């Protein structure tokens, strides 16, 4: 039984949580409003729940880089996470979980994050996930 806020799992695509940035991955700020997701852009995609990866819902993600052809993105939250480990405040929200996804997994584009805020996130991600 689905929760009222739950969205159906897409028939294709594979959004998966990752905990490290693989060697060869890039973190860069390169938004380009061309209809494709680029680092620095906020997009919406189906994200699995931590407790049950077969269930989930559409959530906003900040695209932070690429691992080959796949996108690296951080889940955004509108909840106040002040003082919680792993969350970086961006204003009215923060992030914690990192995902890898394909362009086809994007349901819609939202906005572009300012370069200064993106630099803060990229530095925190690099410090936390690279050896």
From TrEMBL:
One Pfam family it belongs to: PemK_toxin
- Name the InterPro entries for this protein: PemK-like (IPR003477)
Its source organism is Kibdelosporangium persicum
Q: Which domain of life does this protein belong to?
A: Bacteria
Protein name from the UniProt record: Growth inhibitor PemK
């Amino acid at each position: 039984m689905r929760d009222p806020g739950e969205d159906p799992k897409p028939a294709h695509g594979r959004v998966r949580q990752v905990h490290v940035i693989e060697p060869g991955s890039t973190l860069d700020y390169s938004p380009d409003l061309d209809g494709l997701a680029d680092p620095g852009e906020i997009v919406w995609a189906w994200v699995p729940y931590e407790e049950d990866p077969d269930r989930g819902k559409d959530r906003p993600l900040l695209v932070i880089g690429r691992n080959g052809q796949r996108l690296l993105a951080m889940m955004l939250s509108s909840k106040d996470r002040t003082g919680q480990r792993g969350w970086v405040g961006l204003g009215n929200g923060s992030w914690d979980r990192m995902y890898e996804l394909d362009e086809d997994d994007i349901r819609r584009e939202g906005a572009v994050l300012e370069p200064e805020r993106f630099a803060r996130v990229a530095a925190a991600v690099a410090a936390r996930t690279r050896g």
